[in-house]
Amino acid sequence: MTEAAIKKENKDIARQYKELLRISYQTLTTEDKVLIRSAFDTAVDAHKDQRRKSGEAYIFHPIAVAKIVAAEIGLDATSIAAALLHDVVEDTPYTLEQIEEMFGETVAKIVDGLTKISSLKKDKDVSLQAENFRKMLLTLNDDIRVIIIKIADRLHNMQTMDAMRPDKQVKIASETLYIYAPMAHRIGLYNIKTELEDLGLKYTEPEVYNDIFTRIKESKEEQDAYIKEFSRVIENSLEREEFVYEIKGRPKSIFSIHRKMLNQNVSFDEVYDKFAIRIIYKSEAYDEKFFAWKIYSIVTDHFRPNPTRLRDWISSPKSTGYEALHITVMGPKGRWVEVQIRSRRMNEIAEKGYAAHYKYKQGSVQEEQGIEEWLNRLQEALENPEVNAVDFVEQFKLNLYSKEIFVFTPQGDLKSLPKGATPLDFAFSIHTEVGTHTRGARVNNKLVPLSHELKSGDQVEIITSENAKPNINWLDYATTARARAKIKSSLKDEKKEIAEEGKAILTRKLKSQKIQFNEKTVNELVVFFHLKTSLDLFYRVGIGKIDNQKIKEFASSRSNALVSYIKSKIKKPVVAEDLDKDEITSKYDQLVFGKDQDETLDYKLASCCNPIPGDNVFGFVTVSDGIKVHKKDCPNAIQLQSNYAYRIIPAKWIDSSQQDFKAVIRLTGIDNLGLVSEITKEISSNLNVNMKNINFESSDGIFSGRITLVVKNNSILSTIISRLKKINGIDKVSRE
After folding, report:
1. Are 631 and 611 within 8 A, CB to CB?
2. pTM (2 decimals)?
3. Would you say 696 and 677 are in contact if contact means Cβ atoms under 8 Å apart?
4. Is 90 a catalytic residue?
5. H runs (alpha helix) in 599-691
6. What is the helix, strand, coil percentage profile of the chain, to 5?
7. Which of 19, 90, 404, 453 is the catalytic position?
8. Catalytic position from the list 56, 91, 453, 461
9. pLDDT tens across 629-684, in order?
10. Which residues contact 16 (CB under 8 A, 6 or more apart)?
């Protein structure tokens, strides 16, 4: 580079720094400016020998990220300093210890979080990408600013991606649409979310993007003229009421137009509300709501509103803090126009998210606490449910994008929930204790099932009971990440309680076999039953999966002294890898096929005999429906095994303690008073058994019954059947 070019570049860097201070949304103290200056100097020094792919000095990238953080997101000086330093530890000789020494613990923590995110393994595979995203959320170090600066970093990378290889562009753009745009949306950064989506589309579907971009450009003149015409109609009325206001056209984003074209299967010209205007008015806090509705009435005096398209985010702000009044009216020339009515304060919140929300709410003196409170609220939004990575991301995004409904508590307080929420979601949003002890729910004074979908305006009352506790079915009824995480945690605790009971039972059973209960024995048992952890073992004893018979088998295998002696001489004793791990493995019941029982194949359970884990089964290869699994004593088994022996595959269940299965039992006997009560009492006193359906008929002193149960495995079912047979009056109990 020539000396003149270097001079020009340095001048440009200095100008950018001044602009950074000037555009900062927060009021910067002298102390803040010193911190930012120091971070700026360090970044300039660290990146002095680096260039970007486009050829410009690398330092322009951290400055641009800091400008986004300062102006568009409105964060504090700490965040601006961290944004300037975000690539220093990753790309230059500076260490994290040096950063902490120079700028303190908070800045160092944020920079560390950002460095960890950058060093995550990059891959096209969705599940790996999802796993990275999950790890990214876990690198927050209790500071959500890591994610916000990462969003700003991603925005600038997307804005300057032209110099990259096309395959890289597509990869980064896809990741942006998959992860970063939804997060910007959740944080309330609507402008950034829109820009990320549009840029994402530009690189993933360039033809679509360019087509819509060109059409918007072509129609811009016409749109501007239309908005002018629309505004002229209402301006006189607004001025007569002495409003201080501005009317802006709001072009729909390319991404949202594309999404509408796809979802509604329409052409560009048919998109419902391409025309959108925003009326931003000045008002004092006490007049704000009144003015909004006054402007609403002026607009609807002139243009007929679409009654189904009114959105009142002023009375009930969105959970991101967004407030506005949205109406769709029939404008001139018979075209629908979306009108957004916002005060200046609401407009800033819409553009800056919570940073502006708390500035207005608390005043500049308490700005710092405001930001902290905001960060804490966002931290809650990232609660980490224990699910696999892809489900986690999908669940997270579902919660981000879901439309909101507003329901009332019995006292008349308003609660915001995602669309599709159930009484269980409502219960957990009030308090974890309320959620875990939910027994039932009333909506608008009527009892409803826990799976009932709530609607805006519902008044919800939760009925609790000390004895109520979550069961596995609750996961089918809960939709919010918070409720699902708490239910899973509670089920995990319950399993641990069962494991504690199992440990006591196992100690007694081993004693009766004259085997000492110690770590060596536990290890041998875990290996013998092909389990992973000691908790797996105790849990399976607790639910009756490992019963007396199985423990006797273990004892006899152990007492064969000669065999044991030879085995110990030939090979080292096997030690369970995860013996002391504090978890119960969620290894669902699996069917293995083939002589060596080492193949896992897709299969369906035959409806003629409804096999459940633990049953003796075989696989039958059908012509059009894949492998069907039948019980060996299925009514059709003999015919299948004799006529189609070549289609039979050996099959066996391995492990059966983590999933629920449906089984139907039939009972017959002599009718007497209280018999039904005795039967249901016997079933409900059994562990982990749920009655789904119950049907009894009585005729001339004889009764017959049919009960559908949900059980873990056939050993539990056998226990129930043998106990039912002992009830006085029962003649026969059989499984369908």
Report:
1. yes
2. 0.56
3. no
4. yes
5. 637-643, 675-684
6. 55, 15, 30
7. 90
8. 91
9. 998 888 888 788 777 777 888 888 765 455 567 788 888 888 777 788 888 888 87
10. 60, 63, 67
